[in-house]
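dumping this here before i forget
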Amino acid sequence: MLGAVPAPCRAPIFLPDALERPALVRELLERTAPHFPVQRYFKSGAEMRAQSGPAALIIAPNFRADWATADSRVEGIEFFLENPRFIQAAARLFESDLVRPWGVYSNITWQLPFDQGGGHTDVPAFVGVDRRRYPTWLLSVMGHSRLFEKERVEIATAVAWFYRGKDGGFSYWPDGPDRPPRLHEGDLFNTAIMGDNDRMYHRVRPVGARKDGMLSGMTLETRLEYDGGDDWAIREAGETRARMRFDALRISVSWKGYVYRDAEQRRRHESEVGALDLDQVVDRFDSDLTARGIRFQAPADPLHDEAFVEVLTHAYVREPTVLAVTAPAQPAPPPPLGSASLRASLASKPEGGSS
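structure:
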């Protein structure tokens, strides 16, 4: 895989206490069940490889729920979406107090006893091109290519954990994909890392013991269901495939917020001044691939042409080359909550943007 030169990322910030009331996360998980496999985000193996690296499309016991997007919110999500600890850390990360929270989603993993991929970055956003209109694989490739930095909208991401197991840690590459990763593992519960995750590679560490294997034969219709008390089950078409207690579920929740350089950049994003369209995106890829001597067939339907997806993936997407973990090391914590940097724009709720 050729890959583009990776963009440098900002140094992440460690939050030793993510939430004031972490028990609310469990309440929300129970209330919003059932949960479906994360692979529902992809329509093909080619799309998954564009975002997550060169692996087969396997349906694994890793479930996701969108709790807040640009277009919708579940009831009671404000405690997480508008968490001042996240807003302050995002402001510090990108050196701007113009923070606009917009996204929250959960990841629930059970008995997945190997590293989840070789390391990936999150889905970026660009003026005119975001998740509301276009598939996440395209946004991911655009971010890796570094051909659209003028139109990029910065996103701060906090990953918070609500799991008391000693496994299921978090590998991340703040020094770049060709340097050793760092590891957050062990006492994960109610901690968080605020990062530039659209540029910082990261992955989930093994969950559960390898000797216990992994549930196979799952499909996109498999459901993680709440049975009351501490009891959960994985089911499909009414058949129970596995049962587990709540403490066996590795829970992480991601928070996302736009961070604007200044009021003018925010205005341009929200009004879509200078917005990209699909033809411009394809033309920019075409020019760059041609200049690099990469031959390809111009797609009639670029969003669904798997051969075109594979060409872009091979040209631009890369994974970390160094996987050996260094000694655990946490980023520095943020300043006190009373600092002057906490002037985020909470009063203006999300009206658009990506989800």
